[in-house]
Design a protein that fits this description.
Blueprint lengths: L1 H10 L2 H5 L12 H13 L15 H8 L7 H12 L14 H9 L41 H5 L3 H12 L21 H12 L8
Helix pairs in contact: 6-9
Bound molecules: heme C.
């Protein structure tokens, strides 16, 4: 048992799971991680807006990579949620909901940020790649939960709106190591676009709530 525990401990990466008093900083990358990163950097090149600095992980991504083969330790999950919640900027005018019709277009648009995309055009949110939203859209992915009837089911209590805003702004604020892009934090969607997808989720007139 002891051996198992300690090898598990090693796997969970010393700085994170086994040396809590030393803090929760992401551990130094292993040799294998360094080799893989070097191979990726040599195999790809900057192409227009798609630049290689995308391979550089921030602290959240490092912590999630370290824990990828096991359940995320609670203490690390808490730290990731804290770091990411601190990045969430509420809308400057306090209004969470924009134009649902534009939000629908954003949810359905899968372009933006790739080398072949026109950087002058607004980025899409590609929400349907992972979520069911409007019942009239038949093509959707299931990596994320269904968001059908989202506003109808949850209402518009300020706490509900603030939570949903935080999830779309930076999913790791409430779902540490989520696969959902951190749309606001990473500058994928603008504040206005975030408001528009929020309206698509919450507006009683939005097809999501029919
Ligand atoms: C790559 C997949 C992916 C994409 C793209 C994506 N999401 Fe998500 N989303 C998820 C996953 C997975 C979850 C569940 C949280 C978790 O466990 O990671 C989630 C959770 C959510 C939640 C919280 C649901 C709840 O239970 O309250 C909202 C709201 C949401 N997504 C909205 C959006 C919107 C709006 C877009 C587009 C702008 C979007 N998502 C794009 C994967 C995705």
């Amino acid at each position: 048992m002891k051996t198992l525990e300690s090898s598990r401990c090693r796997k969970m990466l010393l700085a994170v799971a086994c040396a809590a008093p030393m803090g929760l900083a992401a551990a130094e990358p292993t040799d294998a991680t360094r080799d893989i990163t070097a191979i990726m950097k040599s195999a790809f090149e900057d192409k227009r807006q798609a630049t290689l600095d995308r391979l550089d992980q921030d602290e959240t991504q490092k912590l999630c990579t370290e824990a990828r083969d096991q359940a995320l330790p609670a203490v690390v999950a808490k730290k990731i949620a804290e770091i990411n919640l601190a990045t969430v900027k509420p809308p400057a005018d306090g209004q969470y909901l924009g134009d649902w019709q534009n939000g629908e277009v954003i949810a359905n648009t899968g372009t933006g940020l790739q080398s072949s995309d026109d950087p002058a055009k607004p980025n899409g949110g590609n929400c349907y790649a992972c979520h069911e939203l409007s019942p009239t859209e038949m093509a959707y992915g299931t990596l994320g939960p269904s968001l059908k009837h989202y506003g109808k089911l949850r209402g518009q209590d300020p706490a509900v709106l603030a939570y949903a805003w935080s999830m779309v702004y930076n999913s790791n604020s409430y779902a540490p190591c989520s696969n959902m892009p951190r749309f606001g934090h990473r500058g994928i969607l603008t504040e206005q676009q975030l408001k528009d997808v929020m309206a698509f989720l919450f507006d009683p007139a939005s097809p999501v709530n029919q």
